[in-house]
Amino acid sequence: MGKADKVILMDEEVNRIITLCGKDWAKIGTEFIFLGGKAECENCKIKKACLRLREGAKYKIVGLRDGAVQDCPLHDEGVVAVEVVELPIIALVDSKIAVEGTKFHYEEKKCDIFNCSMYSLCHPVELNNGETVVVEKVIGDAPEQCQKGYSVVVAELRRVEN
């Protein structure tokens, strides 16, 4: 098997990525955001298997691989091989560009209303300004009216490699 094998999962084609994760949380259904490597990873023999994920992206474990537990300086119980998929990004998008298949460069909304219930949807932690994304699916109306007056809808986004 290669780095990312295409498989059918819930009637959709997705890329499964084989990587390593802490043995103590290697369970199907576990979701996590990959934060990148640490200083302890620099001299590790198996770092390529761990660091193949996109920093800041959210993943879900969809399969467990047979194999030995590997020693890891960050995980006391060691690491094991798992299959993960990158999860879509749920965000508020300008209603004018919220059409399935639309590709655009993500730009954070200029907003200083930090206690707004929609703030995290307007500022998804998985995205950086300038990243290219495509609207996979328009989910529906925003949960409430934007306090800044933006016309936005909830959409499922996917990163596009530049």
Provide a brief overview of the structure.
The chain is mainly beta.
Task: Give the topology, please.
Layout: E1 4-9, E2 12-22, E3 31-33, H1 47-50, E4 58-64, E5 79-86, E6 89-94, E7 103-105, H2 119-122, E8 132-141, E9 152-159
Antiparallel strand pairs: 1-2, 2-5, 3-4, 4-5, 6-9, 7-8, 8-9
In the sheet with the most strands, the strands line up as: 1-2-5-4-3
Helix percent band? under 10%
Which stretches are poorly predicted, pLDDT < 50 over at least 5 residues? 1-12
Structural class, please? mainly beta
Q: State the end-to-end CA separation.
A: 25 Å
* Major sheet: 5 strands, antiparallel
Helices, by number, come to 2
**Proportion of residues in extended strands:** 35-45%
Domain count, please report it. Answer: 2
Oligomer: single chain
Mean pLDDT: 87
Radius of gyration: 18 Å
Describe this structure in words.
5% of the residues lie in helices and 38% in strands. The protein folds into two domains: 4-86, no CATH class; 89-159, no CATH class. With 162 residues, it is mostly beta strands. The protein has two helices and nine strands, in the order βββαββββαββ. Mean pLDDT is 87; it is low at 1-12.
Task: Label this structure with key terms.
5-stranded antiparallel sheet, single chain, 162 residues, disordered N terminus
